[in-house]
Write a structure and sequence with these properties.
heterodimer; A: SH3 type barrels; Rossmann fold; B: 22 strands; globular
């Protein structure tokens, strides 16, 4: 098999006959003895070869000119697209099966020519990562890129992997005290190499939302399973609530800010903050904060071990905001040692209320801070941000106050 | 002539990539609306055909049924390939003498007409290089694939197409033969044989639409695909008609070439010619604001319609698919209310000479123009003979234009499903347990004492297991065979023959019971009407009591006349032997009773 490389046209001789086709790269998990070729009829098959013969070397790939030109129009606003990776900004290289990020503004326009009618597009690729690999230092990098882009554009769209998009949305929400442009995070649940991808509609809608006067960080995703409208979610209220559905993103304990239909018609359901004159960024994060899911039978040593080196923790407690009453004394001494401990609920929906049961009352007395209807992940990001930018007392006070729409007093049945 | 076959057979397992039932359902419990977009191909360009489809700006509505889940809705990744369906596909491939690939790779075949929510159909190549032997010789079967069935189209409302998800994802085996067949009888035989092999697995779905056949026919020029040629007995007719059509088109092409035929570009408005026409169709269209448009076909006279040539039908075919009912051409006018004078005027305006002809269409202006563009395109093709196209079979043996042949499939790997390694041990295990080939099964049934014709029919109808089970339990092979071959699939033959065996009715009644059961009557009810274990006693007792004097007079000699009376009432319902036994018994009782 010397001289033969992926992409060559080959003949594979096997016990089952001779096959001709293009040699394909082996996927990571394919068995060793197998070679994979693409037959003339388009099918890929794996074969155990006795011999592989070269018929024709692969032709040098001529890079096709993409038929889009970036034209600047004075009449249109300028939107910056900051790529971070994830499903929405990727396409598959079919010869290798590898997923590549859309690297340039041209790439985005090529797959979505409609958006050039909406705005002048600028773009940069900041990261190319799956969103489960995001971390606080990357949120900070992203925030700085947003601040820079805000100076030269009228709106910012951030394509992002959906797994941790709501964390990033929260982080940006807290870091930007003021925003002169809308910051819109957008993702997709079906990759853009499929004709049924939600990427197009979501991206199109996000560019349209980025042209508005919203001075907040929002998430734009499918409202339902149909391709008819998207919701505009507040960055501190949204959570991925399904592993795979298009409408996985939902505003929890609150209505979305609004919805946008396929023609760009926007309907708002709530008050939102208008854009400011300038953008103000506080970009420090204290990473020594834990997000801790309490479960029945959790050993107290584990609990204490996790919190030992932390400056604070958000607990996802049971029901209205509880952990085992055996933890009360331990928590009391941690709080005394200067740790901030906030309570949210693993129910996700509803508010914690630590007055109803005795354990709640004891925990509160021990110094646990009740965090209302704030989402656990949002509380986690918020506490990191508070400890990074404020002194202990201020951080403690601000944690339980609404500063970016992350908490509300009223919840409704319908 | 070369013919090939493509057979699609639904399997009776759970769906291919989820655990939903493979069935059709009228239980619609919701709907979603979607849009599909063409995607970049490997080379980075958007596929032209795909783009054209999407330019139509079509929306798709999907009806959600009780047998569809998030997978059919494209809201959840596909599950692993259904193991049972895979095993059946391998079985069929082995029965067709094919080799099984060492590793199966599921592919995505791009289809953006909305019939798949994902925008592609998942398909995998399972077996290669198979063959089947027929009385005409060997026919090669290059590929056997396992794929998912498309959603069921319910209706089209302008730009909205409505599909139902019940059918989406049902496993399909696709068997493609090489173009090795040379006549319609051979095609029929291959279709029938492959069909019987599929049914021999006992795991295929039955009923309308569960098996579909496409026939490819080429006589040296364009390839024509007859899509959905499902009626086996019609296949020779369809093939013969298509061969004639292709020969006719070749002859027409020769004539056109000889005449240096030409299709004029210009579309004329001929409405003024028809202001006082007697043609009802044209007058009606003009009254509605439509126009009469026409084109000149130079050198086409006589090939549009005469005894041998029917090019006019081909031209009409391409406009029918865009919703134009028909056209008129020079070879059929004057006629249909169009006068000689009107034809003369057309000849003058279009400057037609001796060998020239024309086509006119009465329609709204834009639609008429679009239709004539298609006619021009098709007329130009006629100079090259047979164009490749897809046609629909009709019950009269002819076929009808549907669309041009699709381009090569665009196929990409399905990255959500890992490749499946097929080991030799696994193949061997399946090979050891292959179902019997249909021929072998026919012979086995023959040995149970029925005719070859019946044995063949029973195997073809996939009723061989039912037949065997009943005959082994109760006997009556010829009666069971007749019942099954005349009857329908759904009825419970076991119950009928158990009852016969128990003496509840006579053999002669079986035909009637089967017929009534097939018409929907409850078997238990029919049998109870026939049931004689109670009635027999009553009826015989009644006769014996009525004819008491006769018995007293003649003693046991009264049996003969009384038997006549009894059989008058019981013939067909009860075995004669049973009646005579009972009657003798009752007569003896009576004699004893009276002599006391």
């Amino acid at each position: 098999m010397d001289n033969i490389e992926e992409g060559d046209y080959v003949e594979v001789i096997t016990d089952k006959g001779t096959f001709k086709g293009v040699l394909l790269p082996k996927p990571k998990f394919s068995k060793d003895e197998i070679v994979i070729i693409k037959l003339e009829n388009g099918y890929n098959v794996g074969l155990i070869p006795k011999e592989v013969k070269l018929i024709k070397k692969k032709e040098r790939k001529i890079k096709t000119e993409k038929a889009v030109k970036l034209e600047y129009s004075k009449d249109l606003p300028t939107i910056s697209i900051i790529g971070t990776g994830g499903t929405i900004a990727s396409y598959i290289d079919y010869s290798t099966g590898a997923v590549h990020p859309a690297l340039t503004a041209e790439d985005f326009l090529f797959t979505m020519p409609e958006i050039s009618d909406e705005a002048n597009i600028q773009s940069e690729v900041l990261f190319n990562t799956l969103s489960e690999n995001m971390k606080p230092e990357m949120w900070i990098k992203l925030a700085r890129a947003v601040k820079k882009a805000a100076e030269k554009s009228d709106g910012i769209v951030i394509p992002h992997g959906t797994d941790t998009m709501s964390y990033t949305a929260s982080a940006l929400s807290f870091m930007f005290e003021k925003l002169s442009v809308p910051v819109v995070l957008v993702g997709s649940q079906r990759s853009s190499d499929r004709p049924s991808s939600d990427a197009y509609i979501n991206l199109h809608a996000s560019v349209r939302v980025a042209k508005k006067d919203i001075g907040e960080v929002v998430v734009v995703m499918h409202a339902g399973s149909s391709d008819d409208k998207c919701y505009i979610h507040r960055g501190t209220r949204v959570r991925k609530m399904h592993t795979s559905r298009r409408d996985a993103f939902q505003s929890v304990n609150s209505k979305p800010l609004g919805e946008i239909d396929l023609n760009g018609g926007i309907r708002f359901f709530k008050e939102y903050k208008k854009t400011d004159e300038n953008t103000e960024l506080h970009d420090k994060m204290d990473e020594r904060v834990a997000l801790l899911y309490y479960y029945p039978g959790m050993p107290i040593e584990i609990f204490e071990g996790i919190l030992e080196k932390m400056h604070g923790a958000i607990i996802m407690g049971t029901g209205l905001g509880h952990v085992s009453s055996e933890f009360v004394n331990s928590i009391k001494s941690m709080v005394k040692d200067g740790k901030i401990i906030g309570m949210t609920s693993q129910c996700i929906y509803g508010s914690v209320n630590m007055n109803v049961y005795s354990t709640g009352r004891e925990l509160k007395y021990a110094g646990v801070i009740e965090l209302g209807d704030m989402l656990p992940e949002v509380a986690y990001v918020k506490l990191m941000w508070l400890l990074g930018n404020y002194n202990f007392e201020d951080a403690k006070n601000m944690l339980k106050k609404n500063i970016r729409g992350e908490m509300e007093d009223r919840r409704f049945l319908l | 002539m070369k013919c090939g076959l493509e057979i699609h057979q639904q399997l009776n397992t759970k769906k291919l990539f989820c655990n939903c039932d493979s069935k059709l359902s009228d239980n619609v419990i919701g709907e979603v609306t979607r849009i599909l977009r063409p995607t970049q191909s490997e080379m980075g360009e958007i596929d032209k055909a795909a783009l054209q489809e999407s330019i139509k700006n079509r929306k798709f509505k999907y009806e959600i049924t009780d047998n569809s889940c998030l997978v059919e809705l494209d809201e959840e990744p596909p599950h692993e390939l259904n193991k049972e369906a895979l095993e059946i596909a391998i079985k069929v491939a082995l029965m067709l003498n094919a080799n099984i690939v060492d590793e199966i790779h599921v592919m995505r075949k791009i289809v953006i007409d909305g019939s798949n929510t994902s925008g592609f159909q998942r398909t995998a190549l399972i077996g290669v290089n198979g063959y089947i032997d027929t009385s005409f010789g060997r026919v090669n079967i290059p590929t056997i694939c396992l794929e998912e069935e498309a959603a069921r189209k319910i209706k089209e409302e302008g730009e909205l197409v409505v599909y139902r998800l019940d059918r989406l994802g049902i496993p399909l085996i696709e068997i493609s033969t090489a173009p090795d067949m040379k006549n319609g009888e051979e095609v029929k035989e291959v279709a029938e044989k492959i069909g019987m092999i599929l049914r021999a697995t006992k795991k295929v779905r039955r009923g309308a639409g569960t098996i579909r056949q496409d026939i490819n026919i080429s006589t040296g020029q364009g390839r024509v695909e007859i899509k959905g040629a499902s009626k086996l007995n019609m296949i020779p007719k369809w093939v013969a008609e298509e061969e004639n059509r292709q020969e006719m088109l070749k002859n027409v092409a020769e004539i056109l070439k000889r005449r240096y035929a030409k299709v004029d570009d210009k579309i004329y408005d001929l409405t003024d010619v028809f202001m006082n026409t007697n043609s009802k169709i044209i007058a009606k269209e003009i009254k509605r604001g439509g126009r009469v448009l026409g084109i000149a076909l130079r050198g086409f006279k006589g090939v549009l319609k005469n005894k041998e040539f029917r090019l006019g039908r081909e031209l009409a075919g391409v406009v029918k698919v865009i919703g134009i009912k028909g056209l008129f051409h020079g070879d059929e006018l004057p006629g249909y209310g169009v006068s000689e004078e009107e034809v003369e005027k057309i000849n003058k305006i279009l400057k037609l000479e001796d060998k020239d002809s024309f086509v006119i269409i009465a329609a709204p202006e834009n639609k008429g123009k679009m239709a004539l563009e298609r006619v021009k395109e098709r007329a130009k093709m006629a100079m090259n003979g047979v164009p490749g196209e897809t046609r629909a079979p009709k019950d009269d043996g002819t076929t009808q234009y549907l669309r041009p042949l699709p381009g090569a499939d665009r196929m990409y790997p399905e990255t959500d499903i890992p490749p499946i390694r097929i080991t030799e041990e696994y193949i061997e295990k399946i090979r050891q347990n292959l179902p019997k080939m249909p021929e072998e099964r026919v012979n086995e049934l023959l040995n149970m004492g029925i005719s070859k014709q019946d044995a063949y029919t029973i195997v073809r109808e996939d009723m061989d297991d039912v037949f065997e089970r009943i005959v082994k339990k109760y006997g009556y092979p010829t009666i069971v065979a007749r019942a099954i071959t005349n009857g329908c699939e759904e009825i419970d033959y076991d119950t009928i023959f158990k009852a016969l065996h128990d003496g509840k009715f006579a053999k002669e009644a079986v035909d009637d019971i089967v017929l009534r059961a097939c018409n929907g009557e409850k078997i238990e009810k029919i049998i109870s009407e026939y049931d004689t274990s109670i009635n027999l006693n009553e009826i015989i007792e009644k006769i014996v009591n009525e004819k008491e004097t006769l018995i007293i007079e003649r003693g046991t000699a009264a049996f003969k006349p009384l038997m006549g009376l009894a059989m008058k009432e019981l013939r067909g319902k009860v075995d004669g032997k049973l009646v005579s036994e009972k009657l003798r018994e009752k007569i003896n009782e009576k004699i004893k009773e009276k002599s006391q």
